[in-house]
Design goal:
By secondary structure, the chain is of the alpha+beta class. It is built from 11 helices and 15 strands. Strands 3-2-1-4-5 form a 5-stranded antiparallel sheet. It has a 5-stranded antiparallel sheet with strand order 9-8-7-6-10, with no helix packed on it. Strands 14-13-12-11-15 form a 5-stranded antiparallel sheet, with helices on one face. It comes from Thryothorus ludovicianus (Carolina wren).
């Protein structure tokens, strides 16, 4: 396998910390070539020192020899005192800088200096903190602002969720939970793994183990779409539960309900069932999956398989039975078939009505009745009436 390199760097926002003294760090989601995603935290002073060293390593590309040859982006120097306002206002500049940095020629964007700076450090996973001092405050960059970097709005406070059961982590990138633990969600991934933080801990957590504080129902969850979206299976999976489907790599299916725990309801022909969303890719999209990356992280556990659940809500989550999925899906397919049949029949009628006159058989003239004997004798010539005598 080749050397590691960064595919994308996304600025998530910033964090206000109070230990050992009040300061600010920026949060970056770093996506690597093996499809792993890591969240790292860097002070702006660190970023600026990294930038200066990068310019020294590539003097031509930094414009030190000829300003016209500069391709390394600009980055303003840190202020004498960085407060919350300057930290917030600098987000647009930093987001643009990261975008430009990753898109530089490979000799720059994939050099060890860049790779090492954005690698996960020990304090990214376990920041130095003091239990007597209040926990850090997190402010996320709004989604709309990520599309329009020049329009940075106010901060967004992270959502707090509660663990409904104990969870033992299976890798160093995950975070263990105890029932009742309160976590702040930094990133919600549709594959069912959410990046969370709790005091001085950070890591990936199965969404199935978390519940919102205000109620059991997830307002973010979409309604079923029985028309279905075409997806292609990127990794085979053998069903464990009765309501799951067994599929092979390359199979084409339709997704009819996307659920937050990462287990989507899919349709194969007229059969429906659950399948891990992280093993699916939308049809027509470029194949960016790496098999080794898929194997490194397995599918998250399903909500229905969690034991000893302790929810704070009296009313449970609204769940749709698999029979309802099958019935509604079958009804939709039947209606589609009827509509296609009706449209086909209408098309045939229109063709018959619009058939050209040349193609229609021409009407044959009627044969006149034979004249009577008296009529021939009275009106025909002598040569004619002699033939009937």
């Amino acid at each position: 396998m080749g050397d590691a390199f960064i595919r994308h760097i996304e600025l998530l926002g910033y964090e206000k910390r109070f230990f050992p003294s009040q300061h600010y760090v920026y949060m970056f989601l770093v996506k690597w070539n093996d499809l792993s995603e890591k969240v790292v935290y860097r002070r702006f002073t660190e970023i600026y020192e990294f930038h200066k060293a990068l310019k020294e390593m590539f003097p031509i590309e930094s414009g030190d020899i000829n300003i016209e040859n500069r391709i390394i982006p600009h980055l303003p120097a840190p202020k004498w005192f960085d407060g919350q306002r300057s930290t917030e206002n600098r987000q647009g500049t930093l987001a643009e800088y990261c975008y430009s940095l990753v898109n530089l020629p490979h000799k720059i964007s994939r050099c060890l200096h860049v790779v090492n700076f954005f690698k996960v450090r020990h304090d990214d996973m376990n920041p130095v903190t003091d239990s007597q001092i209040k926990k850090p405050e997190v402010f996320l960059l709004p989604k709309d602002s990520q599309k329009n970097l020049t329009d940075i709005t106010g901060p967004i406070v992270l959502q707090t969720y509660r663990a409904i059961a104990d969870y033992e982590k299976s890798s160093t990138s995950e975070m263990a939970l105890k029932a009742g633990d309160m976590v702040d969600v930094v990133e919600k991934n549709e594959n069912g793994w959410w990046f969370c933080q709790m005091k001085n801990k950070r890591g990936w957590v199965p969404a199935a183990y978390l519940e919102p504080m205000d109620g059991p129902d997830e307002s973010e969850e979409q309604e079923p779409n029985y028309a279905g979206e075409a997806y292609v299976v990127q990794k085979s999976y053998t069903a464990v539960e009765e309501d799951e489907l067994t599929l092979k790599e390359g199979d084409t299916i339709e997704v009819i309900h996307k659920l937050l725990d990462g287990w989507w309801v899919i349709r194969k022909d007229e059969t429906t069932g659950y399948y891990p969303s992280m093993y699916l890719q939308k049809a027509g999209e470029l194949n960016t999956s790496v098999k080794s990356g898929l194997r490194n992280r397995g599918a998250p556990p399903r909500r229905s398989t969690i034991r000893n659940v302790k929810s704070i809500h009296k009313q449970g989550r609204k769940q749709i039975s698999q029979e309802t999925y099958r019935r509604n899906s079958k009804k939709y397919i039947q209606n589609q078939r009827k509509m296609r049949a009706n449209s086909h029949n209408k098309a045939n009628v229109i063709i018959e009505k619009n058939e050209p006159e040349d193609n229609k058989p021409k009407a044959q003239p009627a044969v006149p009745p034979r004249p009577s004997k008296d009529l021939i004798l009275n009106r025909c010539t002598e040569s004619t009436w002699r033939k009937i005598l």
